[in-house]
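Re-running the complex after MR caught last week's input typo. The corrected sequence lines follow. Everything else is unchanged.
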Amino acid sequence: MKKLDIYQFFGMNALRMCMGIVVFILCVIFYDILSKGAGKISWEFLTQMPRNGMTEGGILPAIVGTCCVTLITGIFAVPFGIGCAIYLNEYAKDSWQTRLIRMAIRNLSGVPSIVYGLFGVVLFVNMFKFGTSILSAGLTLGLMTLPWTITASEEALKTIPNGYREGSLALGATKWQMIRTNVLPYAVPGMLTGTILGLSRAAGETAPILFTGAAFFLPALPASINDQFMALPYHLYIMSTQHHSIVKVRSIAYATALVLIGLVFLMNLGAIILRYHLRKQRRE
Amino acid sequence: MNKVEISNFNFYYGQTQCLKNISFDITSHQVTSIIGPSGCGKSTFLRCLNRMNDLIPGVRMDGVINIDGQDINAPQLDVVSLRKKIGMVFQKPNPFPKTIFDNVAYGLRINGIKDQDYIDDKVQESLKNAVLWDEVKDRLNSSALALSGGQQQRLCVARALAIAPEIVLMDEPASALDPIATAKLEELIVKLKEKYTIIIVTHNMQQAARISDMTAFFMQGDLVEYKHTKQLFTHPDKKITEDYITGRFG
Ligand SMILES: Nc1ncnc2c1ncn2[C@@H]1O[C@H](COP(=O)(O)OP(=O)(O)OP(=O)(O)O)[C@@H](O)[C@H]1O
Ligand SMILES: [Mg+2]
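Corrected-run output:
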């Protein structure tokens, strides 16, 4: 073999190995959860309230709670995130102020989620008097997701060729007409991907909802967004560390983990399908 | 009558000066061609006329450009209506990722035109003018991105014509066209000058000589010579112009 071929050979295989390791770890985790949790999953488990000190019954309130909170998170973080991104990418001049803002946003996405939790307590629970509730928790998660949605949306806008903008403006479009008709439609698929990834991360977070609205146990489903709620990640945390008979509820914990993963997977699947349709529409 | 008057116009990208003290007048209902070596500032100049360079950060300019007697860089000027009366065909074809029909109809729709029959007529007329109609009439609803480079170029011409501008700026509109399409486009340009004022950048000397009334020769940001096309090509004032048009250049 020639020298270059050897490099090529080892290089390729090193990369292949990296991928293999990652896939292997993922498979192990997934297998572990699946093997220990799948047996527990049933229609009853998904649709009933917990009974008997949460040792029996289902996890319906946790599923409902997580869905509601994620919805609030999305309603808050998606429009604001996309709005910020449009402003930063299309309107803001490239000055040191905007660079500073951009840097701040990037850094915010690295702030530990527990910090957002504390911030949420101060701002939403106490100052805005939303109490510990779905609203407070959703907004807190929204704040946490915002840097991700902004960054992802901005990246999506950056992929739109300048020729679309110039062509549109040259035909006498106003700036907003240009953005609405010739930039956003093509950026939305990319925005969605990043945004939904951010949302599914939020759905799995425990720390930010810990003090802002998640409850240990509730006998009934939340009636409004001002109520406390049960959430899948928090329920999982309780079942695996806080419950009075942890060993007995181990399988419930695994099944809860499986449901959470399933939910996140569904969200991502939704994003993929949506993106596929939007792309197809655009090509036609 | 002067449609465009440029006086002492300078343009800078950051620190580098790209257009140096340009002054000349462009007559309405004429074809004015701009020639010059690559990188001399032709596109930059064209883009100054509809303020496309506003979009590029860090540019600076001074001097005056008047269109219809109005300073186009005046702070109170409405850029959107300025651009509505100037159609532009960019150097790099930039079809939108929409259908062929929607590309041409784009300018009409953003101007608030809803009448579908009118739009249909206009699209057809513009595509015919741009010598593209016969090739695309059966697939108006397929994507413009699937067109060939030369077809895309003509689509961009059609798109610019559809808004019925007063001035048409064309940055090498025939660079990717075969001789027949080029000839047809040149025919169109000559025909269009009855209604419009046309400014065209071209690297093709024969083309400039064939279609234009006036020719401006740019070099390294300077306007070297600006005369009636016939005179410029037969009796250039400057040696360097002669060298360039006869191809003896650098
Ligand atoms: N966006 C930009 N930023 C900085 N410099 C630029 C920019 N666009 C063009 N220039 C520079 O300005 C000069 C003139 O460019 P321009 O595009 O006007 O040339 P041109 O005459 O149209 O050339 P060509 O015939 O190759 O199209 C070039 O030196 C180019 O490098
Ligand atoms: Mg050019």
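None of the earlier attempt is carried over here. Strands of chain B lie at 2-13, 16-27, 31-35, 59-67, 70-71, 86-89, 167-171, 197-201, 214-219, 222-228. The radius of gyration of chain B is 18 Å.
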